[in-house]
Amino acid sequence: MRKLVYYVAVTLDGFIAAEDGTYDGFLFEGDHMTGIDYPDAVPTQAREALGLRDTPNRHFDTVLMGRNTYEVPGGLPSPYAHLRQIVVSTQVTGTPSDVEVVRSDVAGRVAALKEEDGLDIWLCGGGKLAAELLPQIDALRLKIHPVLFGRGIPLFDGKAGITKFRRTDAQLFESGVSFMTYERN
Fold first, then answer.
1. pLDDT by residue (tens digit) across 42-72?
2. Which of 41, 59, 74, 118 has the highest CB neighbour number within 10 Å of its CB?
3. What is the spatial distance between Cα 83 and Cα 64, in angstroms, rounded to a whole number?
4. CA-CA distance, 47 to 50, in Å (whole number)?
5. CA distance 173 to 22
6. The pairing of beta strand 4-11 with beta strand 139-145
7. What percent of the chain has pLDDT over 70?
8. Residue ranges per domain, the chain?
9. Per the database record, which ranges form the Bacterial bifunctional deaminase-reductase C-terminal domain (predicted)?
């Protein structure tokens, strides 16, 4: 059975983006950038520049995201064209044919996706969708950056009850960034 993995960058104070949705405060240079273990999570347009164009997906073949994550700055119509893209929104319109829009029963759609064959499902964001899907999240893969935003979009933006996870992996970098993996207990 496939897993739903919330793979996201986060600040020390628990934010995945600034209040305006930008993420300029995250570190984009340093030793944590030298080995891209998750090429699947690199936007399609950046894969070529990074020499990853023909790199096969290793972890994910499906990306699940909210409207704000999907509607990235620059108006890219299909940010992860190398993955099966699913956008959860009641407002998004005019999506390319390779983008599925889910307008209701998100939990049911995720349950059906988990039953399919394939690689894991990447929950890309945002915080509201993550809070809604917390009962279905099997693992957290957090890229923790040594920065405080003070305010912004929280990792889980909404009612999220106590949910226990256990750490299964930790990678620490000289840049101060750490990659932490947690599996649901």
1. 888 888 888 888 889 999 999 999 998 888 6
2. 41
3. 10
4. 5
5. 24
6. parallel
7. 96
8. 4-149
9. 3-177
Among 3.90.180.10, 3.40.250.10, 3.40.430.10, 3.90.1150.10, what is the CATH number of 4-149? 3.40.430.10
Place of tokens 């340093």: 30
97: exposed, middle or buried (Cβ count in 10 Å: 0-12, 13-18, 19+):
exposed
Residue given tokens 């909210």 in the structure block: 66
Rounding to the nearest 10 degrees, give the CA dihedral for residues 137, 100, 69, 32: 60
Q: Counting beta carbons within 10 angstroms of the beta carbon of residue 68, is it exposed (0 to 12), middle (13 to 18) or buried (19 or more)?
A: middle
Task: Note whether 36 and 172 are within 8 A (CB).
Answer: no
Question: Letter for the amino acid at 46?
Answer: A
Q: Which two tokens stand for residue 79?
A: 């940010």
Q: What is the pLDDT of residues 131-167, one digit of tens each?
A: 999 999 999 999 999 999 999 999 999 987 899 999 9
Q: Quote the tokens at residue 136.
A: 């279905």
**In 10 A of CB 70, how many CB atoms?**
25
Pinpoint the alpha helices (H) of the chain. 44-49, 67-70, 106-115, 127-133
